[in-house]
Amino acid sequence: MSRVGLLVNPASGDGRAQRLGARLRDVLLHSGHEVVDLAASDGASARQISRAAVHDGRIDALAVVGGDGTVHIGANACAGTGVPLAILAAGTGNDNARALGLGAGDVALTARLLGAARVKPVDLGRSRGINGRADRWWLGVLGGGFDTVVNQRARRIRWVHGTARYVAAVAAELRTFRGFRYAVHVDGERIKTTAMLVAVGNGVAFGGGMRVCPDARMDDGLLDVTIVHQVSRREFVRVFPKVFRGAHVDHPAVHMLRGRTVRLAATGVRTQADGEDFLALPVTLEAAPAALRVCAP
Hints:
Layout: E1 3-8, H1 16-30, E2 34-37, H2 43-55, E3 61-66, H3 68-78, E4 85-89, H4 95-99, H5 107-116, E5 119-127, E6 136-138, E7 141-145, H6 146-156, H7 162-174, E8 180-186, E9 189-201, E10 223-229, H8 233-239, E11 254-259, E12 261-265, E13 270-273, E14 276-280, E15 283-295
Parallel strand pairs: 1-2, 1-3, 3-4
Antiparallel strand pairs: 5-6, 5-15, 7-9, 7-13, 8-9, 8-12, 9-10, 10-11, 12-15, 13-14
Helix pairs in contact: 1-5, 2-3, 6-7
């Protein structure tokens, strides 16, 4: 018997997460687990409540039910603690769950993994806290530039969901977007350029299947960096569909790097990580090997 903290995002999947969370709670209780309800009114409360439950030793594992943003909260709560994270994917993108071999909505699998204590270590990306601030972590892809403004636009679109919502946001933002001037440092290599975006991948995809860092691995101790240099709108529209196959990497405007430490600098750019607002540039990022234990097949 173990104490499982249960964090459900009631907004994920238009209420689907709420239903799946209730089913998971019932299965866990029937299996003899103690379930600690970590219900929260908003994202900030969810971060605080889940982190406190982990760090105060009130739970033996944390189960999150929702999309990539909810997984992001769980990863930040469990990072570096040894407390395993279980993921019941119930969002619209579910990029990180897919990367870990976890299908959407599989209550039975989530319960089995928790019951059998099936865990594996995975890397995280980290931005170290300064001036007394806590470290910030991400599991999948961090981006800064076009993807950030698209992500903000997508949050305001309600008439489509999942990948289609992201594509609609791309079409809307592309009409007026201009590239940013970046300075990118990867393990000592320095690049200055005007670019559409810079993505730093511990994982492969964002935006519901966009394989922006197609060769990234969550267990190699490295971060993959994708720079998309400035191109015309027409050329971007031509190349954009290739990102769903990871085939964009062959385009001459795409520059791929890999390293342990990455520094990004640009003026007026905020980053997003796992689809969540993250930090303003400049930032220094590093790979954190085996920083998270996840319940995965």
